[in-house]
Specification:
12 helices; 2 domains; 20 strands; seven-stranded antiparallel beta sheet; single chain; globular
Length: 566
């Protein structure tokens, strides 16, 4: 199918038409999001919502994303996946009814579970874009259940890769690819159900966008996209111009890579010049032989775009125009621009910290807008084993919600997920206990976890699990050596922790580990809090008393840090 360009002299658009097209496109992405939640098979999708929906144009540029998306998927992964398809197939061989999948580490740059799926959108013979859904497939083979092994030293140990292959061709299933998919997972029923939900989302969105473009005509549709992008670009440039020109830096450390001892120092530099911003990630650690790497598009590009959105342009819809004033300096071979063969099972380990760090760098330029650090780790907790009755595999991914940083005039929010997550949800306790062989014995806010300050950091959580059957547990907790930092005299938040309480009474810590648990063992997770803002002694006395009454702050902390009795 040819990509027909809009003719010269396309009709001028009135603002109402532009706004109708803009809002309808976002609504389509949101409708697909809701339908995936309704039709998926695994709790990781229908409860936790580990997926994202987006629409890109015929060249792969981002038109819009659903409002409840996982932003770590949308930021640059969708564009990279579609452009790889255009390079391999060409526009003429991406036909109506095709469904293409891609999880190749050299393109997506994240763990192999994250599968980009897309279908072309045509109006008659004109390719106008692609409907894209990126979803976490619950298992794609590899050495460990769930495919994200702590011990992997290259990508090939983490599962099977599909680099831009058609799952459906002109609407018909490609049976060979289906067989490969189905026989490279430990959970074929659940995963094939999720895949069908993903396919349904692509087709539903494709049809709705087609109707919209047909209603207004291709020329008007494309002219509206150009206007939308230009408006977003203008807003982004205006926001950057409001920041004082300068070169700003910030430093932090990552605990370790999970296999080798030693912390990993990180430094980012942000340059503001007129109406453009450059994020320099060249001083990050080099890629490691442990699964905490990610590629450029799933890593470094994502860091720069998400930090830009959070701090510079948090309002409005994200699209390609939003990021036109943003530049990235990133050499190949760092932990966020790793080679395709590097292990990436825990690709997300560094991302929340680095997004936080870019924002921290701009603290001196925007003292009234930059918050304290957030707890900054996926706080991954994965259980897996075989069911005692049937011997079938089971797995459960859980993760922690923690505190975000306080800012001028406002306590830190939370517990929320990280800056990579967006509107993802906790899987309800009832679903966990009805589905997996463990009980959740306790669940509550973690006293004193938020950093003290005139404005207090958000709180983390405490959660206790009781194992009812032999279970393999994998953990990935970060930011214990560099907890959420306070700003302008605010204190740091408390770091997270994982404690195993064995049935024999012994205890041990397991921050980045893979351990075998026995029936009767208990696990306690504590997620970190957010950094405080301002001198704690300036906090209003009535707010300190309220914090103590609600259990957010202990009486001892109120007296020693907030000087409640002074």
């Amino acid at each position: 199918m040819a990509i027909n360009q809009a003719p010269d002299g396309a009709p001028a658009l009135d603002p109402v038409t532009v706004e109708v097209i803009r809002r309808r496109l976002v609504a389509i992405a949101d409708e697909v999001d809701v339908n995936i939640t309704r039709t998926a098979f695994s709790p990781y999708i229908y409860e936790y919502k580990d997926y994202a929906v987006g629409i890109v144009d015929h060249a792969g540029d981002l038109i819009c994303q659903c409002t409840a998306a996982m932003p770590v998927f949308v930021a640059d992964v969708m564009r990279a996946a579609v452009r790889d398809g255009l390079d391999i197939y060409g526009a003429d061989d991406l036909n109506p009814g095709d469904i293409v999948i891609n999880n190749y580490a050299g393109v997506i740059g994240q763990h192999l579970n994250n599968m980009a799926m897309y279908t072309p959108i045509h109006v008659v013979d004109t390719l106008i874009g692609f409907m894209v859904v990126v979803m976490h497939w619950i298992d794609v083979g590899g050495r460990d259940v769930g495919s994200t092994s702590k011990f992997a030293t290259d990508i090939f140990q983490e599962g099977i890769q599909f680099r831009t292959v058609k799952l459906r061709a002109r609407g018909e299933p490609v049976r060979e690819i289906y067989r490969i998919v189905e026989h490279n997972t430990r959970f074929p029923v659940e995963m094939m159900g999720d895949i069908n939900s993903q396919i349904g989302g692509c087709l539903m969105g494709r049809d709705e966008v087609t109707v919209l473009a047909q209603r207004y005509g291709v020329a008007t549709f494309r002219a509206a996209l150009t206007t939308i992008w230009d408006q977003s670009e203008a807003a982004a440039r205006a926001a950057i111009r409001a920041i004082p020109d300068g070169i700003y830096t910030a430093e932090a450390v990552l605990d370790d890579d999970g296999l080798n001892p030693g912390s990993l120092p990180c430094r980012v530099t942000v340059t503001v010049a007129g109406d453009e911003m450059t994020v320099d990630l060249s001083a990050l650690p080099r890629e490691v032989n442990a699964p905490m790497n990610c590629g450029r598009y799933g890593g470094g590009e994502t860091v720069s775009r998400l930090a830009f959105r959070y701090l510079i342009l948090p309002e409005g819809d994200a699209n390609e125009g939003t990021f036109r004033p943003l530049r990235l300096v990133l050499p190949e071979g760092t932990i966020v621009s790793a080679r395709p063969t590097a292990p990436m099972g825990s690709y997300n380990s560094a991302l929340p910290t680095l997004i936080d760090l870019v924002i921290r760098a701009l603290g001196p330029a925007l003292p009234d807008r930059v918050a304290g650090g957030h707890y900054g780790t996926f706080a991954t907790l994965a259980f897996a084993g075989r069911r005692p009755d049937s011997g079938a595999f089971w797995q459960c991914h859980d993760s922690g919600f923690g505190g975000w940083g306080a800012l001028l005039g406002q306590d830190g929010p939370g517990p929320f997920r990280t800056m990579c997550h967006g509107d993802t949800r906790m899987i309800p306790v009832e679903v966990h206990e009805a589905t997996y062989p463990f009980l959740i014995e306790g669940y509550g806010l973690r006293t004193d976890s938020g950093g003290a300050g005139e404005f207090r950091g958000g709180l983390g959580l405490t959660r206790r699990y009781l194992m009812l059957a032999p279970t393999r547990m994998s953990t990935r907790f970060e930011r214990t050596q560099c907890p959420a930092w306070g700003m302008h005299g605010g204190h740091d938040g408390a770091p997270g922790n994982v404690t195993i309480e064995a049935a024999d009474g012994t205890t041990r810590t397991a921050l980045k580990d893979s351990v075998q648990l026995a029936a009767g063992d208990r696990v306690r997770i504590e997620t970190g809090g957010g950094g405080g803002f301002g001198d704690p002694r300036r906090r209003a006395r009535d707010k300190v008393r309220e914090d103590v009454e609600k259990g957010y702050v202990s009486l001892a902390t109120a007296r020693t840090i907030y000087r409640l009795d002074d």
